[in-house]
Design a protein that fits this description.
The complex is a heterodimer of chains A (about 325) and B (about 325). In chain A, about 35% of the residues lie in helices and about 25% in strands. Chain A is built from twelve helices and twelve strands. In chain A, helix 4 packs across helix 5, helix 5 crosses helix 7 and helix 7 packs parallel to helix 8. With about 325 residues, chain B is α/β, with parallel strands linked by helices. Chain B has a domain of about 200 residues: P-loop containing nucleotide triphosphate hydrolases (Rossmann fold). Chain B is built from eleven helices and twelve strands. Chain B has an eight-stranded mixed β-sheet with strand order 6-7-8-3-9-10-12-11, sandwiched between helices. Classes of the chains: A alpha/beta (about 325), B alpha/beta (about 325). At the A-B interface, helix 8, helix 9, helix 10 and helix 11 of A face helix 7, helix 8 and helix 10 of B.
Chain lengths: ~325, ~325
């Protein structure tokens, strides 16, 4: 580990113990790191394990799920053994988080002002008056022109985009080093999505935050991230820079995804659909987890799961085609 | 033949399967102790469009643009407040439910959420059979045969006939919805966000299936979606809606290559692109969509429009024809 790695996830395994002694290996051996000030995207379809990875980093995985193995080094300190109480000094202060649905993430019975002040008073140990002043300043920063009035409003009085702005204000209120954004714009219309992503980028630069962006939208990845990990079946199948991923995709799943995407920039007669569907986490095929859907499947793919190997400097792929 | 005559000739040849004229759909807002009407939500506000037999007309817009309401009004699942709807030149907007019944077999709809639109207590056979029971006098064995052939058409195994909706994934459920919609061999199908609940790899499967079925059964689609890339892929013509009105309607190529309305331009520029070599200039619109219960005066888009001028607040722009098949409602183009 280099001196300046902010987040270093090593061998993370998060399993869910289901009825009938079934084990869902939702996250199964994930390694990646995030440097200060960098935007790293975790992309995948439903059931790929991307959200469970982010929840594991915050240690928000509840029963029947459990972090089974691995290390989550944040600023060199492992978060896995920390108690819930110890985690409260990390969550919200050192790592901020925004979720997909701001209506469920915000508390409907408290005003926006209350919810921002709560975070500030708790983590920064400042007076109420000072928290009030800081909260108004934050709301102005994230684009509320009438911040003083917004302080007194409840979440249901705001539109979806405005609620997401309020969430960002809360998430950045304690100057976190890392912002985890889990599908931050999925519930928003495209013109509002552009506003929110623009705001996140501005905040990131202003506070020199690192961002871990979890999304299913490859377009968002292409425009806003620097590094990217593609997840499938609880594992990273391709890990590289955004440029490499889009110009030179290597894993058959990545290429399949890119071909199945209708695009504004090119015309295709027929989309290149990937056959079949994402397997459930408790019934992955033996061998490579993509083997049942892969157009290049070979005998050995069904026998054993390939390792994530470096095929070019800075480009890791989990596929026998490159071994 | 003179140019004018040629134009007229072409107009006559145009075989419209559906025409909607000046459709309005207002929903009352009730309030106070006596639940009196205190206002109106103008979900669809004076929309006209026509759909050619065999084509796919895409309708795009953000939430609250009225695109789904428009679809429902066209099918008479909702009654229009004003306006006329013609299906194969018969006016259906004033028909009673009984009179409408024979027309219902020709017009079907596929909904967004395959979890909500399929009855969880019915198995696949019963789901597909239901329209046949209501509309035809087919025998039991004929219905079974029909169900099996439909399942095969949409790429499901015939033995899944006895399973229930919860046993299927989202993509498979959408296939069941499509099979059900096709049971009566309709001519016209409204697809209301049919792929927006699906993952991209599954979305591509369903879009390909819909294109195949359109060729095989000579279907006409009204394809409603918020995803501009999906609409571009499947449509022949595209209508862009904003706050209950059509901002621009044109052949696909015009909308995506030479958009005229400032809203269309902004919408297109806001779509994140996977083509990292082509960096497009983003137009970031300010503010939110205004409430359809209290739309801005004049042009509905003027509060967010980077090119708004004085006239936009005074006068509502009409849809005007700027080139072959290309209509835009914007004061920048009517002098």
């Amino acid at each position: 580990m280099t001196q300046n790695t902010l987040l270093d996830v090593k061998g993370l395994k998060t399993y869910f113990y289901l009825e009938g002694k079934k084990v869902a290996k939702a996250v199964d051996g994930v390694d990646f790191s995030v440097n200060p000030g960098e935007t790293v995207a975790l992309v995948g379809e439903s059931g790929s394990g991307k959200s469970i990875t982010s929840l594991s980093i915050m240690k928000l995985v509840g029963k029947p799920g459990k972090i089974e193995d691995g290390q989550i080094l944040f600023n060199g300190k492992d978060l896995v053994p920390l108690s819930d109480k110890q985690m409260t000094t990390v969550r919200g202060r050192e790592i901020g988080m925004i979720f997909q649905e701001p209506m469920t993430a915000l508390n409907p019975v408290f005003t926006i002002g209350n919810q921002i002040k709560e975070t500030l008073i708790r983590h920064k140990k400042i007076s109420k008056a000072e928290a009030e002043r800081k909260a108004i300043e934050l709301l102005k920063l994230v684009g509320f022109p009438r911040a003083e009035e917004t302080m007194k409003e409840y979440p249901h009085q705001l539109s979806g985009g405005m609620r997401q702005r309020a969430m960002i204000a809360i998430a950045i209120s304690c100057d976190p080093k890392l912002l985890i954004a889990d599908e931050p714009t999925t519930a928003l219309d495209v013109t509002i999505q552009a506003q929110i992503l623009d705001l996140m980028d501005e905040m990131k630069k202003k506070f020199n935050m690192a961002v871990l962006l979890i999304t299913h939208d490859l377009g968002v990845v292409a425009e806003y991230a620097e590094k990217v990990m593609v997840m499938y079946g609880g594992q990273i199948v391709e890990q590289t820079t955004v440029e490499n991923l889009f110009l030179n995709p290597k894993h058959p799943y990545t290429s399949g995804l890119l071909e199945s995407l209708p695009s504004l920039d090119k015309d295709v007669e027929r989309l290149g659909a990937i056959k079949g569907m994402v397997p459930a986490a408790h019934e992955f095929p033996s061998g490579c987890r993509f083997s049942d859907r892969c157009p290049h499947v070979m005998d050995k793919c069904r026998a054993a799961n390939p390792e994530l190997v470096t095929v070019e400097p800075g480009h890791n792929v989990r596929c026998y085609l490159y071994e | 033949m003179s140019l004018l005559e040629k134009e007229l000739e072409k107009k006559v040849e145009q075989d419209y399967i559906l025409e909607a004229k000046n459709i309005k759909k207002y929903f009352p807002i009730k309030g106070g102790v006596f639940k009196r009407e205190v206002g109106q939500v103008k979900a669809v506000d004076d929309v006209s469009l026509s759909i050619l037999r065999g084509e796919t007309l895409g309708v795009v817009g953000e939430s609250g643009s009225g695109k789904s309401t428009l679809g429902r009004v066209i099918l008479r699942l909702l009654d229009p407040t004003e306006g006329q709807i013609f299906f194969e030149n018969e006016e259906i907007s004033k028909m009673s439910n009984r009179q409408l019944r024979p027309y219902r077999r020709d017009m079907q709809i596929v909904f967004q959420d395959p979890f909500a639109s399929l009855n969880p207590k019915m198995n696949v056979q019963e789901l597909i059979e239901e329209p046949l029971l209501v509309q035809t006098d087919m025998s039991k064995s004929a219905r079974k045969e029909k169900a099996i052939s439909l399942l095969e058409k949409v790429g499901l195994r015939p033995d899944s006939r006895l399973k229930y909706p919860h046993e299927f994934s989202g993509g498979q459920r959408q296939r069941i919805s499509i099979a059900r919609a096709l049971a009566l061999n309709p001519k016209f199908v409204i697809c209301d966000e049919p792929v927006s609940a699906l993952d991209v790899s599954i979305q591509a499967q369903v879009l390909n299936l819909m294109a195949d079925l359109q060729d095989e059964f000579n279907l006409t689609y009204l394809f409603i979606a918020h995803d501009l890339s999906v609409v571009k892929h499947i449509s022949d013509r595209v209508a862009v809606m904003y706050l209950g009105r059509i901002a621009e309607i044109a052949p696909k190529k015009n909308i995506y290559e030479t958009p005229l309305h400032p809203y269309t331009e902004a919408l297109l520029s806001a779509v994140p692109s996977t083509d990292i070599t082509a960096k497009r200039e983003k137009i970031i619109l300010k503010g939110d969509l205004p409430s359809p219960s209290n739309p801005p005066s004049g042009c509905a888009f003027r509060t967010r429009c980077p090119k708004a001028h004085e006239r936009c607040s005074l006068e509502r722009p009409e849809l005007i024809n700027v080139s072959e098949g290309h209509f835009v409602a914007c004061h920048l183009y009517d002098n």
